[in-house]
Amino acid sequence: MDRPNRQPRALRPLRDPGRERRPGDRAPERALGRLNLHDGRVDEVVREVVVVNDQGLHARPSNAVVATAAGFDAQVFLEHDGRRADAASILSVMTLGATKGAKVRIVARGPEAAAAAAAVAALFADGFAELG
């Protein structure tokens, strides 16, 4: 059987028949995959808090942040001094290095963003139950 000299399928470039792709183009699904979409909206809530407990964000308070954030349908991040920590990771939260008096931004996205941000902010306000 004579077959035309063709590249194997795995080596052929992927093409979208509807348009020419350019370097740097991102598939819409990839860009949208980072957003929490529901009812056509993206909810984001930002709250600013101050670390009031003497030891800052050490292991126990970091664990409290992670456990609290996990109870909500939201992505929660903490920002301090130009760094961002994912509140789903205790190591990420601990390595922020937020000490007593540090200003921390809570950024929450998703259907329960407001409730998640409020719950995490309450931990900070309470000093993570470490105040005497």
Outline the structure in words.
- The chain is an alpha+beta fold.
- The chain has a domain at 55-129: Histidine-containing Protein, Chain: A, CATH 3.30.1340.10.
- It is built from 4 helices and 4 strands; from the N terminus they run αβαββαβα.
- Strands 1-4-2-3 form a 4-stranded antiparallel beta sheet.
- A hairpin with a 2-residue loop joins β2 and β3 (83-86).
- Mean pLDDT is 81; it is low at 23-36.
Shape: globular
SSE pattern: HEHEEHEH
Widest sheet, order of strands: 1-4-2-3
Summed over residues and divided by their number, the pLDDT gives a mean of 81
Q: Total helix count? A: 4
Biggest pleated-sheet summary: 4 strands, antiparallel
List low-confidence stretches: 23-36
- Going by CATH, the homologous superfamily of the domain at 55-129 would be HPr-like
* SSE class: alpha+beta
CATH A-level architecture of the domain at 55-129: 2-Layer Sandwich
Strand content range = 15-25%
Topology, number of strands: 4
Please write the CATH class name of the domain at 55-129. Alpha Beta
